[in-house]
Amino acid sequence: MKIKFSHEYPKLKAPVFTTIRRWTPEKERYYRAAKHQMFIIEINGECFGEVILCSVDISSVSELHRDFLSYDTNEGQYKLPKSGKMLVLTFYKVS
Length: 95
What we know:
The protein is α+β, with helices and mostly antiparallel strands and 95 residues long. The protein has helices at residues 25-33, 66-72; strands at residues 2-5, 16-22, 38-43, 46-60, 85-93. Strands 1-3-4-5-2 form a five-stranded mixed β-sheet. It is globular and about 35 Å long.
């Protein structure tokens, strides 16, 4: 399994990191079924490391703390929708 990022965010170097993905019923089922499974981090088609999916949570953008949003989006470089559900995924870095 792979989780793709458009570029190398500083958070990807941390031993445990969280990322936000837009929620759809299909994505929720996929990630919940993949909990505790190994993922390859892919950045622009290249392997950046391996992680294990630790948790899958659902939240609305408005419920997420401003500091967390700044961290997750690399201080706004990645734009999130103003409303709607989001998947909050926590990964543990293996390599």
